[in-house]
Design a protein that fits this description.
Blueprint: H1 5-21, H2 26-33, H3 37-51, H4 56-95, H5 103-111, E1 114-118, E2 124-127, H6 137-140, E3 141-142, H7 148-155, E4 160-166, E5 176-184, E6 193-199
Antiparallel strand pairs: 1-2, 1-6, 3-4, 4-5, 5-6
Helix pairs in contact: 1-3, 2-3, 4-5
GO molecular function: DNA binding
Domain HTH luxR-type: 1-67
Pfam families: GerE
Length: 200
């Protein structure tokens, strides 16, 4: 294994927690991360100490509660931003004498260059930019720092920042590098990820 070991361990611990919270066993986690079951055990010992917990179940419960609180706080913030944008757009539309036909599109366009709704398998469920129908994120974006599916698994649990490179088969105008903020969905869309990106 190459790279910064001190920086890699906390990242791996986080991945172990995310996958465990998703219901995977230690053997399944080891296979998914490409590490040995003994290494997964080592991460669990560190995680138990960090969370001052007696069992894996207790850690997963604490972790899930933390992530849920963070997701709710983030959702409240996003909701307040959307309210402000919505009020501004309505005032603008009323002030010009007409209600915009596609107010939601205008709001999405003002939030980011690119807004995606992605399921944890990587299928793009919604895009505010033209993309091939039923495409996978990995078919149109390149992620240099690892596997996109791993990022999506993490982002389904907590807000995650990632840089993706848009490539063919996208229109040339959309190709380039984007900094995405990926946020977990709640309610009926739980398990999916909203990705808001800006061209860099």
């Amino acid at each position: 294994m190459t790279g910064n070991v001190s920086g890699e361990a906390p990242k791996r611990e986080e991945q172990v927690l995310v996958l465990a919270a998703g219901g995977l066993t230690d053997k399944e986690i080891a296979v998914r991360l490409g590490i040995s079951p003994d290494t997964v055990g080592t991460y669990w010992r560190r995680i138990l100490a960090k969370y001052q917990a007696a069992s894996r179940t207790e850690v997963v419960a604490k972790y899930t509660q933390e992530r849920a609180r963070a997701a709710v706080d983030n959702l409240r913030y996003v909701n307040e931003c959307l309210k402000l944008v919505n009020e501004h757009m309505i005032q603008h539309a009323v002030g010009t004498g007409s209600i915009a036909a596609s107010l939601s599109d205008a709001i999405l366009a003002s939030l980011a260059d690119w807004v995606l709704l992605i399921d944890v398998q990587g299928t793009v469920l919604f895009s505010n930019r033209k993309m091939p129908s039923n495409c996978l994120v990995k078919d149109v974006f390149r992620f240099e720092d690892g596997v996109i599916e791993d990022v999506l698994a993490l982002a389904a649990a907590e807000p995650t920042d990632v840089t993706l490179h848009a490539e063919a088969p996208l229109d040339e105008a959309l190709r380039g590098t984007y900094a995405f903020r990926m946020t977990p969905c709640l309610g009926e869309s739980v398990g999916n990820v909203v990705a808001c990106g800006r061209a860099v």
